[in-house]
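Sequence in, structure out. First:
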Amino acid sequence: MRSYWLDTSPTIRTSGSEGPHQWHDVVVAGAGLTGLTTAVLLARAGKDVAVLEARSVGSLATGHTTGKVSLLQGSVLSRIRKHQSDDVLRAYVEANQEGQAWLLRHLDEHRVPYQLRDAYTLATTQDGMATLHAELAAAQAAGLDVDWAEPPDLPFDVAGAIRMRDQAQIDPMPVLRLLAEELLDRDGLLVEGVRVTGLGPRQEKYLALDTSAGEVGTYHLVLATGVPVLDRGGHFATVSAHRSYASTYRLPTGLSLPQGMHLTIDSPDRTLRSVPTDDGEELLLVGGNDHRAGRADSHAAAVADLDAWVQQHYPGAQRTHTWSAQEYRSVHQIPLVGALPHSEERVLSATGFDKWGMTNAVAAALAITAEIHGHTPRWAETLSGHATSAADVATGVKDNVIVGARMAAGWASAELTSLPHEAPEEGQGVVGQRHGRPLGVSTVEGTTCAVSAICPHMGGILRWNDAELSWDCPLHGSRFAPDGTRLEGPALHDLARPREE
């Protein structure tokens, strides 16, 4: 599975074979929108910056987004209002306005095209209408110009709609390309294939950072890794990992593309937008089927369900690409941005964008950069200083009870089930016990591989993802390739391989 954006993007220039130096003012882990924006802002201020990316530029959330740069965000604002004060709600909106304005201004300055579109949030049921009313009230309380709209002309029933005019849709990869070029032009480093693996004993004036390319000294470390690795703040226990799916389609003659950006507020969740291509045509992008990471019975079934929905409403649509993405939702319902506890403000992170990373990522970069420079925007102070509400506590308790139950059920199943002697069929994986140890065995592209089925983060039993062909942890969303290589999530290390392999 590879996104349309990644598949059509020219190669992004990096520092090549050059690795990190022994010392940098700031090391940024992660080369998505948060990491590269932070790096460029710091480089503009004269900092010596190195960005270390374990995989490749944009390989995680940014390269798998739906590319909506919108302040109308489904049910996000009403969920914030249930958990936080209106002051926090307004600060969240101000942060997103700052992020949106910075990003679109950056594209304008470099003449990178994007499309202005009206954003619609839709209800398809009466339950959805109640949520839609709450979202409109929250948007208006936050000062956004959102109003009721006539249901747009779409090939499925819509009970009601709210609209915000002149939002934007983008291809995220040209943004990353611009940022990478500027970082390199300002003598920063951008290194792919290097992973942050640990933090040694803190020295008096700097951090000793362990990486797969050796030790690096730095004044500040920025963790722009989706959910923080080296998590000293326990963020993994206050965020939940979610996966959702998206596909692009070429429509037959006679079928109309949506003229705005549309998102349903109730189930089944669906997002729709158009995608201009380099040869002048437009594709349909449809996304949805959100679920907790590692907890779907079949990820491939979620992809098939999305495709069946498209065929029902856009008969004859030809799929060109399909992909999935992982995002994180905070129990506080707002992003968690800033210095990690017990780091003396030297280790900073950003997580909890809840699928709205195009605006939140830039806002996080602005806040982190300001914090490193010793001043913080008022909206960032309000967001970081929010009090934990009763709703936050209830959500956190519920999530962690489920995590505990998942761990117990996973271990029970792994211990009771013996691995079959036959290799799994192509594209399949199975978990069971062998010699008293939980193992995962998969077959991908003709190669059968056995790995430990125990997540090295907190000991969860992994499950096979039959769409992405990966091992996924149902506790906190760590993911691994069939050979055990870490892909994403809070885990720091690869999966162990049994000695007989």
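Second:
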Amino acid sequence: MRRRHVKWVLLALSVTAAAALLPGAGQSRPPESDGSTYTWTGAATLTVDVKPWGGGYVRSDPYLIDCPMACIRAFEPNREVKLTAYMTPGHTFKAWEGACAGQGNPCTIKVSGAMDVTAVLEGQFVPPTPPKPPAPPGPPVALNPSLTVTTNGLTATLTGTGYNPSSSISLDFEWSTPPGGWFLLLPGATTSDASGSWSYTYAENCDFGGAYTGPVAFGVTASDAGGASASDGGSMTC
């Protein structure tokens, strides 16, 4: 029952132990207690300290000590305990004082009576390097759209380059002949590829509100979804 009680006390301590690791001003402080007074007749008491305070922390195996915070604990007499010092950034392990003197890190002792151990660290706290801010977005890609129109009979091939990549392309036709003019809008007629290029084939049926025979002259403007546009023209004979 005693061991179970110790384990429950330990579980409560582990949640708050990390909060005690804030870097200090490089000064040593008295061993801190989390308020636990659990002991029994004949128990051996181990007191752990860390110098300088804020340079690191010490944990025990079995896990009862987690200092600074839980620094004073009762053990069964002659219980073997391993103590390990962990350093905060900028600190290194120097030596043990007290019952662990002369040992490296970690150290192992048998707790008997009242024993003291101090982990002596050296160095200066080095705050973590903050992450670099993301690079600002570069200037928008310069667009220089162009449109080329070639006609073959009643078929016109439109070829565009320099438009926004992967963007819908709308075509706006305007005929100057036949007399009276004629307009045609083809929204989203095609889509540019990853390089901003595209092509489209248009076939004329010579129906301008009725059958028409004669020359046909037209201009066409191609625009993408980002507003880049270019114009060109051609002629046919119906």
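Remark: Residues 1-29 have pLDDT under 50 and may be disordered.
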